[in-house]
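Troubleshooting: if your tokenizer reports a length mismatch, compare your output against this known-good record of 193 residues.
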Amino acid sequence: MERNELYPIFLKLHQVNVLIVGGGNVGLEKLTFMLKSSPNANVEVVAPRFIPELVDLINKHDSVKLTMKKFKKKMLKKRHMVIACTDDLEVNKRIYDLSRERYLICNIADTPDLCDYYLGGIVTKGNVKIAISTNGKSPTTAKRLREFFEEIIPEDINQMVLNLNEYRKTLKGNFEDKVQKMNEITASLKNKE
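Known-good structure output:
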């Protein structure tokens, strides 16, 4: 049986240098979802031309830079992650190969074989964030799961998180004692049958 072996992480995109190559609808989609989750993401978007909606989005975020040029390999300097979403598969493949040579993680839109990571569905309620992956198999399923979790997670979950954080700061004892106490307090969150 196939299983999802992806390792989920939560990146501080305001501390990471991201390059998006592509100024069309897919570039707009990638940047929109990135900024929805991380509004201060440090991103440069490169393309010889941009759709107006992408320019409008970039202009609303000081941390995003627009560069109206064709991709050059020197643009990969001082980057941590790359997304290529041009309409030219050869350009995308070149970006992927150059990224791999530099040990950069890279995502080539709609080309799972040329992805070191996928951009999954995300649910955010205050400090609570849930990432959803279908291993690149079904973005529609990830979308439906996101909608489901957005409905069932209570709006006041953030207040509970803040309260538990304050309580955790008051706990005495070693790490194991603190974990046990927090587990006792949060046990009611589990569905008991």
